[in-house]
C-alpha cells in the first residue's frame, strides 16, 4: 500500500520522507503562532502564575485506564478508540472497529464516565466519536444569609467527533505518517448552563526500524470557551510533544512534554511490560510518573495493569493524589478483529484493509 511506483520514483530524486517529522510539526506552527498572538499575555499564560485562568478543566481529566496507568504519556501511542482524546492521528491504528468504555472514581465523591467508538472507512481513514461526562453530585444552594434554597447538581459534558487519515505521500517502506482532527461540543451546568466548542489537531509518525518508535505532536482545546452570564472562559489549551519506543517486543516506553495554558510545562513518563501466556491473550503491568503533580504535591506516581483476551481488554489504573486521596480508573476496550500492535504487524504498516483483519 505504501510504496507505489510513482512515489518510489519521486523519492529517488527527492527523499522527502527524511523530512517527515519537520513537515508534520511545521504544519501546526501557524496554528500555534496564532494562538500565541491572540493571547497578548501568552508567555505568562504558560506559568504557575496563570493557574485558575482557564475553564472547562474537566477536559484535562484523562481517559482510559491503560493511558492513565502510564501517567498519560500516551500521545505517541494513542491506540484504540480512546485516541479520540489523546491524539486523533492514532485512530488509524485500529483494525476495523474499536470501542472503549471507562468509569473513574475521582476525589471528593466526583466521578466521570467516558465512551468512544471508532470505525475504519478504508485502508487509510478512520472516523470516531466520544462522550465525556462528569457528575459532581448534589450541592446545597444557599442565599447570602446561608439559608438553604435547595440543591443543585453540577455536570459537565463533551461530545467529540474525529477523523484520522494515513498520509501516503509522506510514507515509505520504513515509516508511516498519520494526521487527525477532532471537533468537540462542550456543555456545562452549575445552576445555569453554558456551551462552547473546541478543536484538537494531531500528527504521528511511525518508524519501522530495528528499534521501532513513534513521534507525535498534538494541539488540544483550541476554540471558544464556556460563557456564563457575560464572561467567556478560556479553554484549557494544551500542546503535547511525545515519543515512544519498543526496545523489546514486550516492553513499551513513552514520554510526553506537556505545555498547558494555565500552568507550567511538565513531563510525563510511562512504561508497559506485556507477556503473552497464550495466543491472542496478554497480561500487562504499567508504571508512570507525572512531574507536574510531583511538584504540586499531588502524588505523581501511577500504576496499572491490564488483561486482554481476543477482542476484549480490561484495564485498571491506581492514581494517588497526595492529600486528596487515591483515585481509580477501570476501562473496557473492544477491538474487532483482534488488533495487533502496529509494530508487530507482518505488513509493517498502518494502512489496513478492513476485510483482511
Walk me through this protein's architecture.
With 357 residues, this protein is mainly beta. It has a single domain (5-348), classed as monomeric porin ompg (Porin, Beta Barrel). The chain is built from seven helices and 18 strands. The chain has helices at residues 5-13, 20-26, 29-38, 42-45, 65-69, 83-86, 291-295, and strands spanning 97-105, 111-122, 125-135, 139-142, 148-152, 155-166, 175-189, 193-207, 213-224, 227-228, 231-232, 238-248, 251-260, 266-275, 281-290, 301-309, 312-320, 326-336. The strands form three sheets. Strands 1-2-3-6-7-8-9-12-13-14-15-16-17-18 form a 14-stranded antiparallel barrel. Strand 13 (251-260) and strand 14 form a beta hairpin. It starts with a helix and ends in a 21-residue tail after the last strand.
List strands and helices in order, with pairings.
Elements: H1 5-13, H2 20-26, H3 29-38, H4 42-45, H5 65-69, H6 83-86, E1 97-105, E2 111-122, E3 125-135, E4 139-142, E5 148-152, E6 155-166, E7 175-189, E8 193-207, E9 213-224, E10 227-228, E11 231-232, E12 238-248, E13 251-260, E14 266-275, E15 281-290, H7 291-295, E16 301-309, E17 312-320, E18 326-336
Antiparallel strand pairs: 1-2, 1-18, 2-3, 3-6, 4-5, 6-7, 7-8, 8-9, 9-12, 10-11, 12-13, 13-14, 14-15, 15-16, 16-17, 17-18
Amino acid at each position: 500500500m505504501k510504496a507505489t511506483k510513482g512515489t518510489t520514483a519521486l523519492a529517488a530524486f527527492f527523499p522527502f520522507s527524511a523530512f517527515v517529522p519537520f513537515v508534520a510539526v511545521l504544519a501546526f506552527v501557524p496554528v500555534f503562532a496564532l494562538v500565541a498572538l491572540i493571547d497578548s499575555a501568552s508567555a505568562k499564560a504558560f506559568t504557575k502564575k496563570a493557574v485558575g485562568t482557564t475553564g472547562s478543566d474537566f477536559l484535562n481529566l484523562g481517559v482510559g485506564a491503560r493511558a492513565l496507568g502510564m501517567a498519560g504519556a500516551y500521545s505517541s501511542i494513542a491506540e484504540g478508540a480512546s485516541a479520540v482524546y489523546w491524539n486523533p492521528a492514532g485512530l488509524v491504528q485500529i483494525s476495523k472497529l474499536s470501542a472503549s468504555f471507562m468509569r473513574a472514581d475521582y476525589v471528593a465523591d466526583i466521578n466521570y464516565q467516558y465512551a468512544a467508538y471508532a470505525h475504519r472507512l478504508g485502508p487509510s481513514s478512520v472516523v470516531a466519536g466520544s462522550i465525556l461526562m462528569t457528575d459532581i453530585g448534589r450541592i446545597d444552594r444557599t442565599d447570602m444569609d446561608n439559608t438553604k434554597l435547595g440543591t443543585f447538581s453540577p455536570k459537565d459534558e463533551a461530545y467529540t467527533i474525529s477523523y484520522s487519515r494515513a498520509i501516503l505521500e509522506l510514507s515509505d517502506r520504513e515509516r508511516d505518517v498519520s494526521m487527525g482532527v477532532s471537533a468537540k461540543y462542550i456543555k456545562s451546568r452549575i445552576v445555569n448552563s453554558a456551551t462552547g466548542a473546541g478543536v484538537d489537531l494531531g500528527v504521528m509518525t511511525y518508524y519501522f526500524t530495528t528499534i521501532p518508535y513513534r513521534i507525535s505532536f498534538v494541539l488540544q482545546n483550541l476554540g471558544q470557551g464556556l460563557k456564563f452570564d457575560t464572561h467567556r472562559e478560556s479553554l484549557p489549551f494544551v500542546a503535547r510533544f511525545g515519543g515512544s519506543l519498543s526496545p523489546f517486543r514486550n516492553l513499551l516506553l513513552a514520554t510526553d512534554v506537556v505545555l498547558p495554558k494555565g500552568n507550567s510545562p511538565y513531563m510525563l513518563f510511562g512504561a508497559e511490560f506485556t507477556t503473552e501466556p497464550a495466543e491472542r491473550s496478554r497480561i500487562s503491568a504499567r508504571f508512570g510518573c507525572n512531574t507536574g503533580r510531583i511538584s504540586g504535591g499531588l502524588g505523581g506516581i501511577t500504576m496499572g495493569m491490564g488483561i486482554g483476551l481476543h477482542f476484549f481488554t480490561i484495564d485498571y489504573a491506581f492514581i494517588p493524589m497526595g492529600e486528596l486521596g487515591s483515585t481509580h480508573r477501570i476501562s473496557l476496550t473492544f477491538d474487532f478483529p483482534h488488533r495487533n500492535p502496529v509494530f508487530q504487524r507482518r505488513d509493517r504498516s498502518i494502512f489496513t484493509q478492513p476485510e483482511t483483519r
